[in-house]
Amino acid sequence: MPGTSKRMSHKAGLPPGSLVHIGKRKVEKTRITIMDYDGEKFQEKEAQTIEECFPFKDKPTVTWVNIDGIHDMDIIEKIGKHFGIHPLVLEDIVNTRQRPKMEDFEKYIFLVVKMLTCEQDQHEISAEQVSMLLGPNFVISFQERLGDVFDQIRDRIRTSKGRIRKEGADYLAYALLDAIVDGYFIVLENLGERIEILEDSVIENPTTQTLQVINGLKREMILLRRSVWPLREVIGTLDRGGSALIHETTGTYLRDVYDHTIQVADTIDSYRDMIIGTRDTYLSSLSNRMNEIMKVLTIIATIFIPVTFIAGIYGMNFQFMPELGWRGSYFVVWGVMIGVAGVMIAYFKKKDWL
Amino acid sequence: MPGTSKRMSHKAGLPPGSLVHIGKRKVEKTRITIMDYDGEKFQEKEAQTIEECFPFKDKPTVTWVNIDGIHDMDIIEKIGKHFGIHPLVLEDIVNTRQRPKMEDFEKYIFLVVKMLTCEQDQHEISAEQVSMLLGPNFVISFQERLGDVFDQIRDRIRTSKGRIRKEGADYLAYALLDAIVDGYFIVLENLGERIEILEDSVIENPTTQTLQVINGLKREMILLRRSVWPLREVIGTLDRGGSALIHETTGTYLRDVYDHTIQVADTIDSYRDMIIGTRDTYLSSLSNRMNEIMKVLTIIATIFIPVTFIAGIYGMNFQFMPELGWRGSYFVVWGVMIGVAGVMIAYFKKKDWL
Amino acid sequence: MPGTSKRMSHKAGLPPGSLVHIGKRKVEKTRITIMDYDGEKFQEKEAQTIEECFPFKDKPTVTWVNIDGIHDMDIIEKIGKHFGIHPLVLEDIVNTRQRPKMEDFEKYIFLVVKMLTCEQDQHEISAEQVSMLLGPNFVISFQERLGDVFDQIRDRIRTSKGRIRKEGADYLAYALLDAIVDGYFIVLENLGERIEILEDSVIENPTTQTLQVINGLKREMILLRRSVWPLREVIGTLDRGGSALIHETTGTYLRDVYDHTIQVADTIDSYRDMIIGTRDTYLSSLSNRMNEIMKVLTIIATIFIPVTFIAGIYGMNFQFMPELGWRGSYFVVWGVMIGVAGVMIAYFKKKDWL
Amino acid sequence: MPGTSKRMSHKAGLPPGSLVHIGKRKVEKTRITIMDYDGEKFQEKEAQTIEECFPFKDKPTVTWVNIDGIHDMDIIEKIGKHFGIHPLVLEDIVNTRQRPKMEDFEKYIFLVVKMLTCEQDQHEISAEQVSMLLGPNFVISFQERLGDVFDQIRDRIRTSKGRIRKEGADYLAYALLDAIVDGYFIVLENLGERIEILEDSVIENPTTQTLQVINGLKREMILLRRSVWPLREVIGTLDRGGSALIHETTGTYLRDVYDHTIQVADTIDSYRDMIIGTRDTYLSSLSNRMNEIMKVLTIIATIFIPVTFIAGIYGMNFQFMPELGWRGSYFVVWGVMIGVAGVMIAYFKKKDWL
Amino acid sequence: MPGTSKRMSHKAGLPPGSLVHIGKRKVEKTRITIMDYDGEKFQEKEAQTIEECFPFKDKPTVTWVNIDGIHDMDIIEKIGKHFGIHPLVLEDIVNTRQRPKMEDFEKYIFLVVKMLTCEQDQHEISAEQVSMLLGPNFVISFQERLGDVFDQIRDRIRTSKGRIRKEGADYLAYALLDAIVDGYFIVLENLGERIEILEDSVIENPTTQTLQVINGLKREMILLRRSVWPLREVIGTLDRGGSALIHETTGTYLRDVYDHTIQVADTIDSYRDMIIGTRDTYLSSLSNRMNEIMKVLTIIATIFIPVTFIAGIYGMNFQFMPELGWRGSYFVVWGVMIGVAGVMIAYFKKKDWL
Q: Which of A:79-98 have CB within 8 Å of E?
């Protein structure tokens, strides 16, 4: 989270619309892929230069230009010029510290969402910013690096599975959003498992690391929440916004994604409550531990301190101590000591400390 | 709760409208029962195939088709085709991870609610998803398994008790919702008893399990809350939504169910406060325990440590210790020890520790 | 609070409008009293049968029928039939687990409020449900048992004191609401005194019962809050609702009651903060106690353990211990011991522990 | 705060509009002062009877009648009759338990606000209720006792400083409100200083009184908050209410007071956070204290218990203990003891306990 | 924060519009700089008297008058007179305790914002109030002292970089706001680093100062929050307010700043959660410490107390103690002691305390 503002400050004072890539550069070379299709035709290619995708702008077919890598200002500027995109939008695309948002510029809609994935070791959620420009017959998507959650959509376009080849660019944008929100469920599943592991370990073996793990989970929760909450609004506005770019039939699908984001938000809230419960358990287990340590100390001390006192009595060197001379008094004293210890133990048994 | 997202992730990337059963399969074979009635006639049968219920669609009588088991995609698809249901609705029916919701498709209304019941051992709340399709003259309800809270409604239809036979399909849908919300009160009653038991046990015998029980109850509370809160909105929208499928007379009844859901939500809030109070009691009882343990240790130690010191003094082997030779000094020392102990005990009495 | 759902579950599944008395039966025999008045005339009688009050329905005078005891379904049903009351309203009247609410049926307004009183021993708040039917020229009030806060209103009607005899039925309904809200202030006063007593006892003498008392007060607070909060809305709707049954002049009076409910709600919030403060004080007094116990133990132990060690040294039986043979070494050792103890005590004084 | 409901309950059941003084009687004799002015003329006098101020009602000049002491029902009633004030307003004026509010009766506006001042010893905030009646050319203000924050306004009227003599009654009402809100800043300043003193004392010298001080401050905060929050609404409504009694030019000034109330509310929130921080510091300082006490005990005990054991060994009276007869073994034992103590001390140094 | 009300109280009772400088005087002499430009021309000068900037008011070019130092009432009054500014606005300009706000006076817009910067030692955030008057062709900005975040804007005007020379005064005002909000990111970055340092130190080396640092950070957070939250509203109102002074093209830029303020607010919320997490970690580390101390004490005490008792037994002086005379019994006792200690150690190993 602290990173959120890190590079942002480098831009302070620059004129608006200055294209400065904010964030870590995650890919070597920008990769541009184009998919162009309608109900009958389908064409897919990897472009070497951004100019290759310009002719598709005026074709009636639906065109999806996907750009992996947003550090090359040249490409972004050319797209901006050719498709007539507002400079502030271009600035937002290359700034990976955006909040999910949706802006309607009539000729196109600009969308920023966060794509969440789990790393291989499954113990870190990684977020990547995906920006989309939705025009009448094109979708241009910008990602920070290679690899995404859109492979099944590409297959559906290639194999003409489902409705996607029959619908317009708005349906394609919906499909991308849907895939991203579906990805949240995988992340939630991962988080849920880690919370369960945490809950078990807190009971069985609480350590000083536990609170670090809890704080770490809380932070990932915040990351997720900050990705999901604004998304609700984004999708809600898309649906109700009355943009001419969104067909009415797509609205039903958007409401479905909207329901999913609410479901994700609900689950996040449940998880948060569970984590707080775990924290309570951890803190009270610390108290319980202390109680147990104190009990051991108290039992040992209260049994032996009185009998040690008795031994001390008869270790005194007074010349006139009648008991010392009596036969059997040594064994009587042993008896008294065992008796005292027995009373103590009985007392602890009664108190349920043993 | 973690389960909420479990199977959901298996669907990531599939085209929308793909019928994939999400959730545990709870029944072997799908069971279809049909009740068809108007003010005069009544007919009830168990259908072997889903096609048997199709003719009822065009009859003027009210038809209630109840389907137990939603894992058979074939049946769901056929219903969808015959009754003209949107593919996304069918997808929602077979996905048991839905949030309660209501969608008005003009020709029919789609409802998702959660039916809560207590297991026999009374220590677990089990939730089952009930979906309903309300048409002009039919209600199709989908349940995850056999057994529900609708038996009294069936009796009322069979025996023509109350208004149910005189009213339309919307009244039937209301009656089903009413029965489900009434079921919440039974669950609340169960929860209330368990909270009372917990409150007693926290005072009498707090153990390390207590916090687990508290966290468990909090989780069931969340489950209930997540079932009830969206339901308020669902029923409120049904009442005010202005759908032609809901008659004005049914509105009064819906407001009654609405009041009940608010009552349930209120009770949940009270319970939550009670559980938080119990948690406070538990944590402070840990502190009290520690205090008691410390008190015992302190009393024993502060009585015996000084007198043991006195005994140590006269255990020294100096050649010139005048007291050692005096007659009676042994008994004087005993007296001093008893005096010191007495002062200590008086001090503790004053401090209210004894 | 757990009781809130208790009997409610017995009704699960019954058809709506079934008159089932929900709650404890608090009175043996239903008592019906009638007051009928206008500016000049006044008549008061206790009716033996409910039919006696029917003729008043069509008289132009204002009639107040008060019914103590709501377990007799027969009476309720007859009233319902004669005055044309909706079955669901009758069901609500006999269900004492209602939330305060107001429903406008055009011909009459239905009100449910909670009347709170303090028991004689002053340590329990008891809540009673009061339902009212406000018609153009009548108010029918239903109470669970004999005894209420309306005696001064009866006096004002009898003696024609104030405006009550000059105004209509809506003013009477206002007067009843006003008396109930005034009753809340008495309850608040009682609660305030108990909180003050609690605050004093927490500082002077915190016991393990304290937390039970705090939780008990919190629960009564919730009861009060649940009675008052919905009432705000009820009275606000009455005032702004635009019902023809409420005259404009009565609106000013209703706003006054509305202000009072806000004042009650405010005071409840203050009390809640005070109770939370008391809980903090209690918990920190536990820690303080522990500190004090530890201090006593530490002082005794750290003074006597070192000197006991010194005594132990000269209790050793080595043949070559030069000090043992020296004259006066016994007294030197005493001096050393007193010195060590003195240093310890000075240290504790510096630490402010003594 | 408990007092809030104290006297209130004495009124329960009385007819509305009954003039009963609720609150402590704070002044012996009611004092009535009149200021009458316009741009040119100015007149000031202390009235012996309330009738003296009646002629001013119909003069075109602005008249400010200030009444200190509201226990004399006779005066209040006469004002009510002469100026045509609603009985409920009169009831509110003499009830000092009001919440700040504003009511527009077209011919006049009724305002209730709380005037806060610091007592001489500066350790208690005292609240006084100020009611105002704002008419077309008069302001009547009611205070509980002599002494207020309006002296500078009186000077401005007398010396014709600022705009006050050129403006109407609404500007006078604004000026009074402004003076009251300015008074809140003085109270806040006082509170701020006390919080700073508290913060210092918590770190330097936490005592058991600290929590009482914290709870006391929290309570004064609540008092302030309850005075300020409704005031925002009151002033906001005055500004936007569209009353003919408020000129448009005064609106700008009211917005300025509105900003000030928001500033006061903001500062209260900050103070609340600071007090909560202090409470945290206090509670953790209790834990720190305990840790320190435990450390002292542990250091002393763990150094002396092992060496006392060694001394105990050679205090045994076995006939065959070879070490006892060896020369120098006494000194060897001393060396061992010092070594053990040294190891312990080194361990504590490593642990940073010394 | 306590300072917020400090000087404010000095003004209590003064007539509105009184120019009283509230706040610390931060600069010796007021410095006035003027920049005047349009697309072609550019002029910059430092004015000796405020009258030098008056001629620019009627020129068509955009003029930016920047005033460092607001303690000279004379200058403020002259500006007020010449530019026709409302007295209350002038009063607000010289009162540095303002909340960020925006007021539209049709002929000009008045803006108050907080400029935050980090001091050189990087451990304190310093806030400075910046007021702006935005007219049709001028911006007058008031700062408390020399030094600001506007240097890059001055460079852009001088070098005609970006759009600033082509746009009007509203764009200049936007640019100033943008620079101030960009400055917040630098402050956030600084805060983020300090929180990270805190988090590390809490785990590695928690001290009693830690809570002071946490409370200090929380306070700076509140300062930031109080600067940012109202700013959102300010910028939102500027954008949607429909003022003729704000061109439509500038609206897009304002929405961009708006997004940034939301991003800042989001980050503040995350930081707050992190700080609360740190506080939890700190408090639980106190408990852990106590546990560790107790463990050491318990281990030492429970090992040596029993064996010391055994030594005490054979230090008794009874004449008939058979063991004392046996050969080898000394070594047997040693063996028993070592055995007891071994059992204790094994027990602690099992408990995971060693």
A: 86, 88, 91-92, 97-98
The number of residues in chain A equals 354
Please report how many Cα atoms fall inside a 13 Å half-sphere around the Cα of residue A126, on the Cβ side: 14
Which residue of C lies nearest to B182 if distances are taken between CA atoms? C12
Residue B79 pLDDT greater than 90, yes or no: yes
Q: What is the pLDDT, as a whole number, of residue D205? A: 77
- CA of E249: how far to CAs of B221, E163, E253, E256, in Å? 51, 12, 7, 12
Residue carrying the six token digits 């140590």 = B312
Q: Which of A155, A164, A169, A21 is nearest to A107 (CA)?
A: A169
Q: pLDDT, tens digit, for every residue of B18-67?
A: 777 877 777 778 999 999 999 889 999 999 999 998 999 889 999 999 99
Torsion of CA A241, A242, A245, A246, to 10 degrees: 80
Q: What is the DSSP letter of D318?
A: -
Token pair listed for D164: 């006050």
Whether residue D286 and residue C281 make contact (CB cut-off 8 A), yes or no, is: no
Other residues' Cβ atoms within 10 Å of the Cβ of residue E323 = 16
User: Which H or E run contains A110?
Assistant: strand A109-118
DSSP A131: E
Output the 3-class SS for E143-211: ECCCCCCCHHHHHHHHHCCCCHHHCCHHHHHHHHHHHHHHHHHHHHHHHHHHHHHHHHHHHHCCCCCHH
Task: State the average pLDDT over residues C145-159.
Answer: 90
Cα gap A77→A93, rounded to integer Å: 11
- Concatenated DSSP letters for B316-352? ---S--HHHHSTTHHHHHHHHHHHHHHHHHHHHHHTT
Residue A240's CB is within 10 A of a number of other CB atoms, namely 13
ipTM of predicted complex? 0.76
A60-85: per-residue pLDDT in tens? Answer: 999 999 999 998 889 999 999 999 99
Q: What is the pLDDT of residues D89-125, one digit of tens each?
A: 999 999 888 889 999 988 999 999 999 988 766 677 8
Residue E294 has pLDDT above 70, yes or no: yes
> Which residue type, as a one-letter code, is found at position E268?
I
CB proximity A301 to E under 8 Å: yes
Q: Is E327 in CB contact (< 8 Å) with chain D?
A: yes
Strands in C31-37's sheet, in edge-to-edge order, are C42-47, C31-37, C62-68, C138-143, C125-134, C109-118, C101-104
Confidence of residue A347 (pLDDT cuts 50, 70, 90): very high
pLDDT, residue A307, reads 93
- Measured between alpha carbons, how far is residue B340 from residues A223, A306, C105, E280 in Å? 64, 14, 83, 45
- Find the angle CA(D86)-CA(D92)-CA(D95) to the nearest 5 degrees: 150
Strand, coil or helix: A100: coil
pLDDT of res. A108: 94
What residue type is assigned to position A262 of the chain? I
Angle ∠(A182,A185,A186) on CA atoms, nearest 5? 100
Mean pLDDT of D123-128: 83
Helices C169-204 & C151-159 angle (0-180, nearest 10): 140
pLDDT score at C291: 86
Please report, for residues A92, A321, B311, C19, D34, the alpha-carbon distance to residue B324 in angstroms, rounded to integers and kept in the order given: 95, 10, 12, 95, 97
Query: How far is it, in rounded angstroms, from Cα D312 to Cα E305?
Result: 11
Task: Please give the C-alpha separations between residue D260 and each of C299, D178, D185, E132, in angstroms, as whole numbers.
Answer: 55, 9, 9, 20
Residue E138's alpha-carbon distances to C336, E31, E57, E69, E101, in angstroms, are 87, 18, 7, 19, 19
Look at residues D257, D289, D253, D212 and name the one whose alpha carbon lies nearest to residue D100: D257
Q: Which among B6, B7, B8 is the top mutation candidate for probing chain A, defined by the most A β-carbons within 10 Å of its own β-carbon?
A: B8
Q: Report DSSP state, residue E22.
A: B
D253 contacts in E (CB within 8 Å)? 16, 88
Q: Where are the alpha helices (DSSP H) in chain E?
A: 73-83, 87-94, 151-159, 169-204, 210-240, 248-313, 322-325, 329-350
